[in-house]
Design a protein that fits this description.
- The chain contains 1 helix and 9 strands; from the N terminus they run βββββαββββ.
- With 91 residues, it is mostly beta strands.
- A 5-stranded mixed beta sheet has the order 1-5-4-3-2, with no helix packed on it. A 4-stranded antiparallel beta sheet has the order 6-7-8-9, with no helix packed on it.
- A hairpin with a 5-residue loop joins β2 and β3.
C-alpha cells in the first residue's frame, strides 16, 4: 500500500511497528502514523494522537525492544508497554 505525506516539507526519519502491528513514524513534525490506505487507493501519513500523553511529549526518537515501542524525549526513556513501568530519567 502507498501512503502519502500531507505536508511536503515533512521529513520522515524512522518507522517501527510493535508486536500488535501498530505502526509509528518519527518525522520532523513529531510522531505520525499511516491511515486509510487500501489496495490501489493510497492513504495518508497523519499526526499520531492515539495516545495523548505520548503525543504531547517532545519525542526525540524511538526504537523497538522486545517487539515494543520505546521512546526517548528531552527528559526520559519511556514506553507504554509493560504497564508503563519503563520510565528512566536521563540527562
Amino acid at each position: 500500500m502507498k501512503y502519502l505525506v500531507t505536508d511536503e516539507s515533512t521529513e520522515l526519519y524512522t518507522v517501527a511497528s510493535d508486536r500488535d502491528g501498530y505502526i509509528q513514524i518519527f518525522s520532523s513534525a513529531g510522531l505520525m502514523r499511516p491511515a486509510g490506505g487500501q489496495f490501489l487507493f493510497p492513504g495518508q501519513i497523519v499526526k499520531d494522537i492515539q495516545y495523548l500523553p505520548t503525543a504531547e511529549k517532545k519525542i526525540a526518537g524511538f526504537d523497538t525492544y522486545r517487539d515494543q515501542l520505546v521512546y526517548i524525549d528531552d527528559k526520559a526513556v519511556l514506553s507504554n508497554a509493560w504497564a508503563g513501568k519503563l520510565y528512566s530519567l536521563h540527562r
